[in-house]
Each structure stands twice: as C-alpha cells, then as structure tokens.
Amino acid sequence: MATHTTSTPQTDALLGVYKKPPMEFVRGAGVHLYDADGKSYLDFVAGIAVNALGYGDAGVDAAMREAMATGILHTSNLYRTSPGEQLADKLVARTFADRVFYSNSGAEANEGAFKIARRWGRSMGGTAKHEIVSLRGAFHGRLMGTLAATDRPSYRAPFRPLAGGISIMERDLDELAVKLSSETVAAVIAEPIQGEGGVRVLDTAFLQGLRALTQERNIALILDEIQCGYGRTGTFMAHEHWGITPDILTVAKPMAAGLPMGAVLTTKAIAEPMQPGDHGTTFGGGPFVAAVGNHVFDRLSDPALLAHVTEQGKFISARLHGIAEQSSKVRAVRGMGFMWGVDVVDPAKDIIGRCMEAGMLVCSAGEHTLRLLPPLVMTRDELERGLQILELAIG
C-alpha cells in the first residue's frame, strides 16, 4: 500500500542547474517510484542507469545493514579495510585488469584515467607524450578535464578555457590514423555506446580498428563504460561484445546501487609508473560503499542476470523496431540489452511529459532522442507495460 505524505514546496536553496518536474519522490519499490500524492511511476530511467537492481532490493539492504553493524562508515585511504580489497580482487578476476583505483563518480573515474594515461605516456615518450584524444559525440563528464573531452558546445562554452592537451576527433579511422601518428598522443578515450550522445553504438569494425591502431602506435585505449558497462548490455562489460580489451576502463553508475562509487581498471603495465602521491581520494572505495559494491558485483556479474538482460533486450529491440515501423514519428532506434535510444520527430521533452502523466519515467539523450535505461531486473510484463505507454506517448 502506498504511503501518502505531503509534498514540500521546491526550494530555492539548490543551485539551479537542473530543471526538475514538480512531483516529489518519497518511496521506491521494485521498478517503481512513488510521489508524495501516492502516484506510481514505472521507471525506465533507473537514476540514469544507476539503479540496476531497482528499489528496495533485499540484498542491498542486507549489505548496508551488515556494513553499518561494523560501526565503520569511513576510514580514508590511509588505512586498509576489507570490502574494497575484496571488490578489487573480484574486478581483476572478472576482467582484463590488474589494478583498480576507486573514485566517487564517473567523472572522477575519467579524470583519474587521464592522469594514469599521462603518467604512463610520460614514462614511454617523455613530456611530449601527453595528449588525450576523444571522439565526436562523446560525453565523459563535466569536470574541467573531462569537459574538454566532452563533445557538447553548450556545456563547454561557458567554462573556457578548458584543460589543454585534449582534442576531439571524428569517428573515422583514416583521420584518427593521421592524428595518432603524432608522438604526442598518450591515449584515446571512447564509449562503446555513446549514452549522452544519443545511444550510438560504435561500429564493430571501427572499434576493433581503433584497438589495433592504438596498439600499433603504442597509445593507451581508455574505454568509458560508466553508462554501458556492468551488465547493461547483457555482458558484464560492454566491450566483450566487440571482442577487444582496453588498457584502461572506467565504470561507475550502478557500482554501489546508488551510493557514490566509480573505478578505474587498468593493466599492470599502464599502472606501473603511478607512484604513491600521484593520485588520491578521501572517500573512494570506503568500507560502506564497497560492501554494497560487492553485493552489486555478485548480482550483475551473475550469468543468469546477464542472460535475462540479453533475452529481454531482444524483446525490447523487437518492440521498439515494431513501433518504428508503425509510427511515422519515429526516425531511428539504436541500442542493445537494456540501453536504447529512439529518435523522434516531436521534441523529446514533450514525449517525456506525456509518459510522466501516464505514470512512466523516461529521459532524453538529445532534443529529439528518447533514452531507455530500465533497471536490469525489470520483467517482460513490466517492460511491455512501459513500451505500451511509450508507444501511445509517441503517437
């Protein structure tokens, strides 16, 4: 039974960098959020790909209670605690990586990856080997380094000058071959699926070619899987679909079920030049968030859960392409697993508003692109109900 509370007025105390709808969420259960008036919303946003296990997950609750029982929420990284070390061992065993560095967010993970890549580059080619190359359509964060690697003129313009030594190139192997012939390039960063850039799945030949090119030129390849990794595409890490491995990988969003956590995963060779004092974090990988992170890792790396995402992802694909065939208001459909973009004729915000009225949450990835990021535990019936609402809202 829904718990009814009184919605509080929106405050002016928060910095006005988000335009928020008027309802106030007070409760979550399963794959639904509930506002102060008791209205339920089927959630196809999942906190922007964060709430992979939905709301009220019993395992997350148990992990938090067990961590709280120790009385240690934080020690700083001056001292050892077990949960972060355990999670690092799991990540190394499950991926290409040999070393893990924890952060508090995806943007911080990418900033850390840039520093690690530059430190390695300097060890290989002196101070000249420092440049980071990003790709057209990329989004890697809003901090000063990651903003320079983010292809959003409106995000960048108010904050110039941005961090130097970072450039954005077209997603073209011939052009990149020329750029990467320079001895100044230390690393290339790419999202296998560009989330904020419209849910654009990078072509297999392109991504495999980029991996070959970076290996040939002794350049580190950083894959940003902050949004597309950790089970969202039906494999634990998205790059597994392309049959490649990076030198550095960044992850974050679902790592600790909504608690702030990100990570940089890297090979031993790339990590070796990093020395004590080269980078740090007060909160990253603390015992409380890492305890939850261990539970999330176990759940999202479970073959049964990944098989569910793969199977239901095919269902989502068929339904979305079916909607596109029936509606003149859908221009294109892209994605895989539980990560989809739908290009629409109407402004995305209008369709988002109609979905919200009908009790469904969906977000955008551009003025005319809807983005679907449901919790990975959503059932076929729940997915179908959401897609029916979406179809009516598109018109």
**Tally of structural domains:** 2
CATH architecture of the largest domain: 3-Layer(aba) Sandwich
Helix content: 25-40%
CATH superfamily of the largest domain: Type I PLP-dependent aspartate aminotransferase-like (Major domain)
Shape: globular
Q: How many whole angstroms does the radius of gyration measure? A: 21 Å
Written account of the structure:
The protein is of the alpha/beta class and 395 residues long. The chain has two domains: 126 residues, Aspartate Aminotransferase, domain 1, CATH 3.90.1150.10; 229 residues, Aspartate Aminotransferase, domain 2, CATH 3.40.640.10. 37% of the residues lie in helices and 18% in strands. A hairpin with a 4-residue loop joins strand 16 and strand 17.
Helix-strand blueprint:
Blueprint: E1 25-29, E2 32-35, E3 40-43, H1 46-49, H2 58-69, H3 82-94, E4 99-103, H4 106-125, E5 131-135, H5 144-148, H6 153-156, E6 166-169, H7 173-179, E7 185-190, E8 193-194, E9 200-201, H8 204-216, E10 220-224, E11 248-251, E12 262-266, H9 268-271, H10 287-300, H11 303-326, E13 330-336, E14 339-344, H12 348-357, E15 360-361, E16 363-364, E17 369-372, H13 380-394
Parallel strand pairs: 3-15, 5-6, 5-7, 7-10, 10-11
Antiparallel strand pairs: 1-2, 2-3, 4-12, 8-9, 11-12, 13-14, 14-17, 16-17
